[in-house]
Amino acid sequence: MKNNYRHGLALAGIFALFLNFSPPILSQNLPLKKISGTITDANGPLSGVNVLVKNTARGSTSDLDGRYSVNASLNDTLVFTYLGYKPVEIAVSSNNSINVFMQSDATALDQVIINAGYYKVSDKEKTGSIARVTAEEIESQPVNNPLEALQGRTPGLVITPTTGLPGGGVQVRIRGQNSITAGNEPLFVIDGIPYDSQSLSNGYASNPLLPDGNVSPLNNISPSEIESIEILKDADATAIYGSRGANGVVLITTKEGKSGKTRYNFKFQSSLGHVTRFQEQLNTLQYIRMREEAFANDGITEYPDYEYDVNGTWDKNRYTNWQKELIGETAYRNTINADVSGGGEQTRFLLSTQYTTETTVFPGDSHFNRASVHSAINHRDKADKFTVKFTAHYGIENNTLPARDLTFRALTLAPNAPAIYDENGDLNWEDGTFTNPLSILEADYLQHRKTLLSNLALHYQIIPSLGIRLNSGYENSNLDESRTNPNTVYNPDYGLGPDYSTIFVNKGDRTSWIMEPQVEWSIKLLGGQLTALAGASFQQRTDAVLSYFGQGFASNDLIYDLAAASFIQIDRDLEAKYKYEALYGRLNYNFQNKYILNLTGRRDGSSRFGPGKKFSNFGAIGAAYVFSEESFLKNSHWLSLGKLRGSYGTTGNDQIGDYGYLDTYTVSGTPYGGTIGIGPTQLYNPNFGWEINKKGTVALELGLWDNRISMTAEWYKNRSGNQLVGVPLPWTTGFPTVQANLGAIVENRGWELSLQTENFKTDNFSWTTHINLTLPKNELVAFPGLEASTYANQYVIGQPITIKKVFHYTGIDPETGIYQFEDYDGDGNISIPNDQQYTVDTAPKFYGGLSNSFKYHNWDLSLFFQFTKQKNYNYWYTASPAGIMVNQPIAVLDHWQTPGDNSETQLYTSGNNVVATTAFYNFIQSDAAISDASYIRLKNAAISYSLPLGKLTGKVFLQGQNLITFTNFKGGDPEQFSGFTPPLRWLGGGFQLTF
Amino acid sequence: MKTILNFLNRLAYLAIVSITALSFIGCEKDLEVGLPNSQLTGISVFQNVATARAALAKIYADIRDTPPLTGTSEGLNLLIGLYADEMKYYGEGGSSIEAFYKHNIQSNSSLTEGFWSGGYQAIYQCNSVLEGLATAPITGEEKAPLEGEALFLRAYLHFYLLNLYGDIPFINTTDYLVNASVKRQPQEEVYTAIIADLEQANELLPNTDQSGQYIYATKAAANALLARIYLYREQWQKSLDAATTVLEDSPHTFTDDLSQVFVSTGPGIIWQLPPITSLTTSEAFTFIFETAPPPLAALQPELIESFEPNDARLSQWIGVVTDGTQNWYYPYKYKTRIAGDGPEEFSVLMRLAEVFLIRAEARVHLGDIGGAQSDLNKIRHRADLEDSTASTETELITAILEERRHELFTEQGHRWFDLKRTGNAAEVLQPLKPNWRITDLLFPLPQQELRLNPNLQPQNPGY
Hints:
Mean pLDDT of chain B: 92
Helix content of chain A: under 10%
Strand content of chain B: 5-15%
Shape of chain A: globular
CATH topology of the largest domain in chain B: Serine Threonine Protein Phosphatase 5, Tetratricopeptide repeat
Number of strands of chain B: 7
Number of helices of chain B: 20
Distance between the termini of chain B: 92 Å
Shape of chain B: globular
Oligomer: heterodimer
Number of domains of chain A: 2
CATH class of the largest domain in chain A: Mainly Beta
Pfam families (chain B): SusD-like_3, SusD_RagB
Radius of gyration of chain A: 31 Å
CATH topology of the largest domain in chain A: Maltoporin, Chain A
Domain RagB/SusD (chain B): 321-463
Main location (chain B): membrane
Family (chain B): Belongs to the SusD family.
Keywords (chain B): Cell outer membrane, Membrane, Signal
Helix content of chain B: 40-55%
Mean pLDDT of chain A: 87
Low-confidence stretches of chain A: 1-28
């Protein structure tokens, strides 16, 4: 094994030597002179235009009066670019002053510069699949987490918020699910620094509230800090991220200052949020009838002691709409932004600050606050050889939520349950017969997070063709969360005092640094341009976690003072390290902007793997053929861009826990008779290694009639093998999983289509439309030994890995009124696993978005629809048998009563008919509990008006999110994670002033 | 010329820097991170007695804190109490606990899965300790009690799984490749393995535990469990012998004072689990309530009525709450809910009274009526009751079972296992539980377990 890496090292050394000692370029060492001028457009001076000396790193930006100056030589060409304008190229020759007039071009693709992570590339010359979402699209949406703004905006990307509560998580899937179990999250990179999306949260504290304890680390970043988000999808774009690129890469670029006059910007925004859709439940009359019929069916005439809803203890006429009561409040969100930016030719700066406060749809004073500061400084020296960029973000979040989500209770509570408060305004326990849902509010979940992200990028252009760069970053994030359980959450009948009040506290601290030295080299070769990049990456991360449990307080007012606890137990005091090293490189050859070849590669090492398995190599080849550059098409008036591109390569996945390959014992924290126990940490497997993901893409990009119509059609096929998964195991092994590689091959393939049209364009009115559509397909291609594995009853070769194997519901027996199922094994008994042979796929069949933007004088209007065709678990999945003391969807009204009835719901039972109960639990594990969850949603609508205020510019706007939903879904919101708060409908407005 | 030299110089410098940087990469040593501060390697745990003892302490703590034997509402005390005829349910409709009371248990019940997973997770740890000790460089004298305790705990856990689920796999290795595809073994085979473990444990275990509080297993614990197993299997002589060993040849003595039975210093306690320092037993938390109606569960009125009126256990071990017209009763064997606010109590898993009743039953079957009466009356006298009037074999068996019902109520499901082994379950439960079916004698294997390991098929009938 040792030999292997030496071999790799030797190769890497040769590569480096080749880079460094190849003959220096025959560069024109002509003297530089200062060129200056003014840039204007139809409205006068244009500031912020990028001026670049072609094929060098020298450049400048025009100031507020449109003036610029730059050093260039006689043979140089100046390139003027500005977003939304056609680029201009002018040869310097003998001029000392060059004035430029720029023409606006809303759909110009060429000069959109795409961030590809380690390098930048123009949209026209890119060889990989990279989608870009700009600040404009993000800011028009009233969302708290920037990832939510991406939903439906680009093909191949599925974003699912896991809860409508602030501070929750967001699931991101780029081109489908590659890995059989965990580790399907993409890599997040903020300003060049990989950002760990693994939450520091302890599930024990946050699970009852946030599904899977998923706290999105990006909650800390305000959407207003972001300049653009790039999604890297194919091998060409992601292979340079090697082992972490398998699930795609999300690059987040924060805003930076523009030179020119100091500019102040202020923005205020306020929105109101509501649950999008309530589920229609039984009212009291219907409910009591159901209950009485259920007891009658079961032959029970005397209602049992504890069936308080029907036995006369509770008022049988009282009605409460518990959804309205428990998740029906209005949530507020207010955001204030202020920033100042400016600078001269050499130095630019941006300082911005923002504050957000958000409440929930629950009663009580749950709220989320976030304050953050973002700063960016850019500097270049006079000689234009050295540039430095420093960005820093510091954010603080405070989240106060009830310890449990109230959504599930809102659906299940009997509609005639007693009042929440008694006449004194205290929580009503109705003499101990009523577990008051708001007793949950007595317990709090508090979360404080602080995040510092800083990035320093140094670049030195040694000679025009050779530059070196050092990218370094430091991250410190700190999470402090607690969940209290005071005695007041318990039924007072227990007579428990604050001696039984408990608190669980979890403190996590993550420090991570990264250093990435790089060399960039560019020469003219055989009539084309060869660009090479080589770099290395060193990263180390340390997580320190301390969690403890305290119980027994003199008073609940002291619950946050650990010193007041009569019992303290340290649950975990852990420090874990993760180290990561990589070498990467890129070779790009561009022949007259017509043929472009892009080679990328990476060699990665990770401490998460055992001896001999730590290293692996990844690489990709990408190519593009811009046929519109061919002479016979170059002057075509209808074809402005025609490009064919493709790529193939490998990436990996190391999203597993640290230290998984070791046989260890961990301190349990639980004492027994004065000894703190230690127990086996996991089933260990010293042999697991890297997962390999192979990706292929072919795409056609067209721009027609001056790019008034542009479209991309892309086909992709990704295969991931040597799956690195936590293989599920039966409990007889002592643990639920073991980390191992599986021979299974999962394929994701599909079509991604996007179309952008400029339907109408005059000086005063314009209308553009974007449509994107994704047709994904997932398939388990191979799985050697599937039959003998623990997956035998979960997967089928040739089918997607998102299938569910369930019972097949065949209807109600009209004689008995009981649900019937297909008896696959014919043994006369419906049992698991033999009769769960029916497969249903819950992955989306297709999804996409449609957006329309209109501009009329000072008015801007955008409407964005998002749609998905899919199946999902409906309300039956979390329901209980109709007839017991749990409320039901109104669908149960259509139920079996007399022989011959053909109804949706079987006969009611109070829980004393075991045959019906068993049939019900089979029913919710059948295809009947999975139904159409397709929807079309007016995801976003925004209208704004620009105020002509002279020197001051201003804007007022109205924005809405999740406004209208069209769906046949049997349940609440079709995007909801069952049992948790659904995504909310937000409606709001605000204003922005710039001067 | 100078510029070219300068340039070459710079280039050379750059090359050196790059090569130095690159040489850092590709070296596995740089990626070694060492163990986290809270972990030990498996081998080092068994290098000394203290850490090996800590590994065992974790198993005891897990038995105390997790199903099936925890005293919380997820354990046998409450759940099997509801399932049999000891407890009456008062909690929320539709809950997973209610399913025990109503005999509505499904194969996806998280609570029955808890019994199964908690049992096998603890068994894994026993096997891990046994395998670690096998090659441990500690002396035989130090090793013996550790090994004995691990064997005892493995047998004890299998005993409960067997009685809850019927045929089960007996797990005696940590190898997950083996354990992932095990088959269910006939009860006879499992019992043989359990008995073998206990006999070996009996050889290795000491008479008194090192703590002096009987919080670790001893010879008496192994023998008491053997006596119970032989009783369940109707091997009367063996049961009698094992019981007699405990009663005559152990440091435990019978107390005549009911108030001394569940305090931590109780002389009749064979094995008990101390709660976490400065906390109290979860049994007290689960069962006690102060006002009515009961928040979760209360003792069945029929159980209260079955006591003889002057039975001292009625007042000493049972609490009562009244609203003036109706009374509700709760198990009050454990009284202390706030540490220091009452006697110190641990959760008792084995005590002498049960062994007396085991011997009484064995003696009846072996024809020793006088001996049986003497053992039975010892328990009755402590409860301020007269000598039993039972004198025939049938009468005595009925009297002993009734005595077990009154002595051992809400303790780890004794009542339910008695109903099962004597074949009385149907007769007793049919009138109480509309959903009663004969297949209720066994719980369902967790459905996920059958999906992951089809070798565990068939599922118990009725699920």
